[in-house]
# Entry
Amino acid sequence: MTKLTEQDYKDLDKVEKLAGLGLTMKQIGGVFGLSVHNFESRIKKIPELREAYEMGKSKAIAYMATTLFERAKTDNTCLLFYLKCVAGWNDRQVVDHNHKVSGSVAITPETKTAEKLTSLDDTQLENHARKLALVSGTDVIDVTAESK
# Structure
């Protein structure tokens, strides 16, 4: 392996800073006039370059994580974000649409009566109420007349 020059070390510092800012390998390669393929090839061949790239990413992530952690102590939005990312929390609701219904639906006489009553007009309802009053011995109240 060849000895690194002063310029090489400056370039390593620059790679570390750019990686820390979140630039991709393609973008960092572009800064140095390299294609992404050439930059990736150099990262594989030059351990110092790979270390500079990884160190930049790691330092940035550590800084952001620390900042987020501190803000999460006083900011609920940051707290929820932190818990979702780090602790695996989620606020999604899962609905199972594959649930099988067993048994049968019972239609009782009350259900049939209610269905019949809702289909009657006012005159038919009043006649029905009179018949019920005769059977039960109660008075019929004409609610349709009161509401008019």
The radius of gyration is 38 Å.
